[in-house]
Design brief:
It is a single chain. By secondary structure, this protein is of the alpha/beta class. It has one domain: Isochorismatase-like (Rossmann fold, 3-Layer(aba) Sandwich), CATH 3.40.50. The chain has six helices and five strands, in the order αβαβαβαβαβα. The longest helix is centred in the C-terminal third of the chain and has 14 residues.
Amino acid sequence: MIPATRSLQQAFRARGIDVIDARIACLLDDGRDRSLNQRKPGWNYLLLPRDAEESQIVAELAPHPGEIVVTKTTDSALTGTNLRLMLANMGIRNVVLTGIVTDQCVSSTVRSLADESFNVIAVEDCCAAGTEELHRRELEIINMIYCHVVSSAELREILRL
């Protein structure tokens, strides 16, 4: 997913399309600012202080100077930040979404965006989950209800990138 996402980022930047990043991290080192689902024991238990290496965006997908990066403490980049307000202020109504984890953060963000009346495209080969089965199943669930799921090749064709 990283090479496909990087290629889309480059194409968007070349066309002057905003690239906005969201990362999950605790604002407090002890993590008490995280949402309840981030504090529950299990696979989703994450304690990622904002300055820890594990909470940084991977180098291959690092934001460029001047690009917006939001830090979220919930699965959804919309409910966990002021992203909705920023998108509205920027006049953005259409959002292309990539990221991890498909059945958690990606799905939560897709659903939140849809609830706020944004048009959402999820790029299937630019998302990943714990297993390929979880990834595929979640994309089937959200497709055509909360978003349109397309491949990066299909998106390039639609947008003529």
